Every structure is written in structure tokens, then in C-alpha cells.
């Protein structure tokens, strides 16, 4: 969401919205909402204004008014850039769907890119790349993999995962939905190749191509794991590894949408999705991924392997022998 999204085109409305922002930064969200409503009386079709109004109402505790603002936003935001559908679903006022809200995620990280690392690592204690890298190294060693010929880092962001992988990969490719994130990581020279793409679309163009696919805190924006894994497994070479993280919950639901607009996956459902996808689970453990507003966010660290072709051939041969007998 660039600054262009936040201009109403009317000087007076913009001025009131700016005053509302300052009130919100000072903690008076109710007053900020009241002033934002005045701005929207001038420009009633300003999508970004309704998004901001919903946020002010939510933070003031007026959830009913926040939902009303987001319903208006949903009608105005055809591309879903502001994530109105997700915000409504997070407050049980609508259905989130099971796939990635592509326009919302792209806009979110385009806006977030310049301060991404400072916020995530410096303030939230984010450690997923080093935790995943350690588990990839351990699992690779158990199956005799010393180096990876090609790795694809999905949702590469500013290259935090790529920095960890670089020393053990011959050709490292980064994929991200955000052009701003791609620009940030390109300056570091970590990756041999960078592609701006939605991850399922990127995976669908590949067949038995990668020895390793990683996704650090990426599938939390995707919802249902099965379509993602269905695209990912064919992109792996036989014997290749996939490593990723999820936010976790202990309930019976396969997943639910948190107020943060990130999906939390059920532990049992996530394990089942790996089995259904035909992957062999090598590492599946819970850990604290980072902190959010001072509270620990528990997640799942996963490393799984696509069965080696030798095993498939051996099984085929065994089955053939049984039939002949």
C-alpha cells in the first residue's frame, strides 16, 4: 500500500485524516475515528479512508462500527488490496476463503519492505530462518546430502532465509509476490535468480527441478496447505527436501484466521496434509517463532522429503513380483 492509496484527492479530507492519524498515534482511537468519519463525509468512496476508519474503531473497542466500515471497504476495493474480506473473517463477519489474498499480501509487503528487517528481527525476535536452516542441515545429513544443487526460497522477502542457505546451495533462487521486497533483497546479491510471482503460480511452472524448497513464515498467508503442497511436490526432485514454518493452534480446526490476518494451522491437520501430499516427515516440531505485542507466537517447524525414485522403483518391483507370484 503506497502513499498513493492513502490520498483521497481532497485537501481538506486528507488534512482531517492526517489529524486523525496523529490522534491515533497518541492513543485516542475513538477521537481519531470521529475525525475520520468527517473526512469520509467529504469523500465517501475513498477506500483507504474506510480501511483506516475500521482500524480506528477496532482499536477503540468498537468492533461493530469497525465491521460496518470494512463492509463499505469491501464494496469499494474490487481487487482486495486492503484485505477487507480477511478483516471481516477475522471478526467472524464473513468467510476468509482458503487461498492467498494475493492483492492484499502484495500491497502489505510492498509497504512493509523498507522497515521489514528492523521490525521483524530487531523488535519481534524473529528467528525462523536460523531455526529452519539448522533443521535442514540436520535432516540433510541423515540422508547423506552435503550440498543442494538448486534451492528455491519461496516468499524470500529481504533474503533472511537465503542468507542462511547460501553456503550450502550451488544455485539459489528467490521468489516473492512483492516487487519492493525483491528490490530490497536484490541489493544484497544473495540469490542467483529472483522472480516476482505468487508462489503457487511459480511452482506450477517447475517439474522435478529443486533439491530444496524453503518457505519461512510464508504459508501463514496461504490458508489451506493442500493446494500449496500439491504444487510444491512436483517441483521437487525425488529425494528433495521442503522446509517451512507455520503458526500453530491446538484446536480441532484445520486452520483459522487470527486478528493479525495470518492463518494458524492445527498441528494434526498440518501433519495430515504432509502425508496426503506424499511427503516423508523428517522434522515436525513446535517452537516459539517470534513475539507479537509481547506475547510468544508458537509455530511448527517442518522438514519433509519427497520419496527418492529408488524407493518408488523398488516398491513397483516388489508389487510386480507379488503379482507374478
Give an overview in words.
The protein has 325 residues and is α/β, with parallel strands linked by helices. The protein folds into two domains: 3-95, Serine Threonine Protein Phosphatase 5, Tetratricopeptide repeat (Alpha Horseshoe); 116-312, Vaccinia Virus protein VP39 (Rossmann fold, 3-Layer(aba) Sandwich), CATH 3.40.50.150. The protein is built from 14 helices and nine strands. Strands 1, 2, 3, 4, 5, 6, 7, 8 and 9 form a nine-stranded mixed β-sheet that branches. Helix 1 (11-25) runs antiparallel to helix 2 (29-42), helix 2 packs antiparallel against helix 3 and helix 3 runs antiparallel to helix 4. The chain is elongated. The termini are far apart.
Brief summary of the model shown:
With 325 residues, the protein is α/β, with parallel strands linked by helices. It has helices at residues 11-25, 29-42, 47-60, 63-76, 84-90, 102-112, 116-123, 128-142, 160-165, 179-186, 199-203, 225-235, 267-276, 309-324; strands spanning 148-154, 169-176, 193-196, 210-215, 236-249, 255-257, 263-266, 280-292, 295-305.
- By DSSP, the count of extended strands is 9
Poorly predicted runs are 316-325
Could you give the distance between the termini? 66 Å
Give the CATH class of the largest domain: Alpha Beta
Number of helices: 14
Q: Roughly how many Å is the radius of gyration?
A: 22 Å
Give the count of structural domains.
2
Q: Tell me the fraction of residues in β-strands, as a range.
A: 15-25%
For the residues shown, what is the average pLDDT? Answer: 86
Coarse shape: elongated
Classified in CATH, the superfamily of the largest domain is Vaccinia Virus protein VP39
Portion of residues in helices?
A: 40-55%
Largest sheet: 9 strands, mixed
Q: Report the CATH architecture of the largest domain.
A: 3-Layer(aba) Sandwich
CATH topology of the largest domain: Rossmann fold
Keywords: Methyltransferase, Transferase
Pfam families: Methyltransf_12
Domain Methyltransferase type: 152-241
InterPro entries: Methyltransf_12, SAM-dependent_MTases_sf, TPR-like_helical_dom_sf
Amino acid at each position: 500500500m503506497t502513499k498513493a492509496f492513502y490520498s483521497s484527492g481532497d485537501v481538506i479530507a486528507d488534512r482531517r485524516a492526517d489529524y486523525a492519524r496523529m490522534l491515533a498515534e497518541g492513543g485516542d482511537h475513538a477521537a481519531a475515528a470521529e475525525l475520520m468519519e468527517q473526512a469520509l463525509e467529504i469523500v465517501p468512496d475513498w477506500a483507504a479512508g474506510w480501511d483506516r476508519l475500521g482500524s480506528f474503531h477496532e482499536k477503540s473497542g468498537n468492533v461493530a462500527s469497525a465491521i460496518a466500515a470494512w463492509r463499505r471497504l469491501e464494496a469499494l476495493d474490487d481487487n482486495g488490496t486492503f484485505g477487507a474480506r480477511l478483516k471481516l473473517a477475522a471478526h467472524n463477519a464473513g468467510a476468509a476463503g482458503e487461498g492467498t489474498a494475493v492483492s492484499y499480501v502484495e500491497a502489505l509487503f510492498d509497504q512493509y519492505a523498507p522497515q521489514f528487517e528492523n521490525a521483524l528481527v530487531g523488535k519481534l525476535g524473529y528467528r525462523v530462518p536460523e531455526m529452519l536452516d539448522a533443521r535442514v542441515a540436520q535432516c540433510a545429513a541423515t540422508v547423506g546430502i552435503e550440498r543442494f544443487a538448486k534451492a528455491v526460497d519461496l516468499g524470500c522477502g529481504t533474503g533472511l532465509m537465503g542468507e542462511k542457505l547460501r553456503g550450502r546451495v550451488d544455485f539459489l533462487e528467490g521468489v516473492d509476490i512483492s516487487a519492493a521486497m525483491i528490490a530490497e533483497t536484490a541489493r544484497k546479491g544473495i540469490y542467483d535468480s529472483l522472480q516476482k510471482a505468487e508462489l503457487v503460480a511459480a511452482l506450477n511452472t517447475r517439474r522435478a527441478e529443486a533439491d530444496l524448497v524453503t518457505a519461512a513464515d510464508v504459508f501463514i498467508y496461504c490458508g489451506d496447505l493442500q493446494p500449496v503442497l500439491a504444487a510444491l511436490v512436483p517441483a521437487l526432485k525425488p529425494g528433495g527436501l521442503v522446509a517451512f514454518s507455520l503458526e500453530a493452534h491446538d484446536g480441532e480446526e484445520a486452520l483459522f484466521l487470527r486478528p493479525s490476518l495470518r492463518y494458524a494451522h492445527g498441528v494434526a491437520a498440518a501433519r495430515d496434509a504432509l502425508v496426503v501430499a506424499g511427503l516423508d516427515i523428517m522434522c515436525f516440531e513446535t517452537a516459539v517463532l517470534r513475539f507479537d505485542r509481547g506475547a510468544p507466537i508458537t509455530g511448527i517447524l517442518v522438514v519433509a522429503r519427497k520419496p527418492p525414485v529408488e524407493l518408488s522403483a523398488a516398491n513397483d518391483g516388489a508389487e510386480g513380483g507379488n503379482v507374478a507370484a
